Automatic annotation (TrEMBL):
It comes from the Bacteria. The lineage of its organism: Bacteria, Bacillati, Actinomycetota, Actinomycetes, Streptosporangiales. It comes from Streptomonospora algeriensis. Residues 6-121 form the Flavoprotein domain. This is Flavoprotein. Signal peptide: none annotated.
Length: 178
């Protein structure tokens, strides 16, 4: 059987507990072929060479020059994790000025099952843009793992829980809707 494809979008934030490399490894262990797309700022937080080594595919950061390369085909599922305040709000508002944000916007438009995991500190979480952005993404069909009742430092779920949601979103598991 062909491997299922997961696009992992990473941005300029990191979990204090688990790395993006851990996330790719855990996804690979669940049978996902992983293509990582990073914001330019994300490359400072998540080493593209390490990520490529684990995923077996180069990390995409920049838009390809017009008329060159291959268009990315819609994957089985897209995961944006960790997702910064900046990229969350840009996705919701439709500002596609990084490849990573453009890919999320396009794949939502293609109906690709999408899971978003914002990672915000408390002051950013208080910004009035956050609630409407989360609601917009949910209204577009994305599953957004963001529990405003949890303290900011515990709001980022463990990767296994994130991947349970990815599996559920792709219809590959029975964890159910969140
Ligand atoms: C050390 C450091 C940690 C950061 N942590 C976060 C964070 O947890 N969440 C967040 O939204 N932004 C965080 N930022 C700010 C983002 O990196 C910044 O807003 C950047 O413009 C995000 O760009 P991107 O969304 O294109 O990746 C952090 C910045 C630095 C320097």
């Amino acid at each position: 059987m062909d491997e299922r494809t997961l696009y992992l979008v990473v941005t300029g934030a990191s979990s204090p507990r688990e790395s993006a490399v851990d996330l790719v490894r855990a996804a690979r262990d669940r049978g996902w072929a992983v293509t990582v797309v990073s914001t330019p700022m994300g490359t400072r937080f998540h080493d593209p060479h390490e990520l490529a080594g684990i995923s077996g595919d180069r990390v995409r950061v920049d838009f390809r020059p017009p008329g060159t390369g291959e268009r990315l085909l819609p994957p089985d599922v897209l995961l944006a994790c960790p997702l910064t305040f900046n990229s969350l709000n840009k996705i919701a508002a439709g500002f596609a000025d990084t490849m990573a944000v453009a890919v999320v916007c396009e794949m939502l438009g293609c109906g690709v099952p999408t899971v978003c995991v914002p990672h915000l500190n408390e002051p950013l979480a208080r910004h009035p843009a956050v609630g409407p952005s989360v609601q917009t993404l949910r209204a577009m069909g994305a599953r957004v793992l963001y529990d405003t009742d949890s303290p900011a430092e515990n709001r980022l779920p463990p990767w296994q829980e994130v991947l349970d949601t990815v599996d559920a979103a792709a219809g590959a598991d029975t964890v159910g809707q969140r």
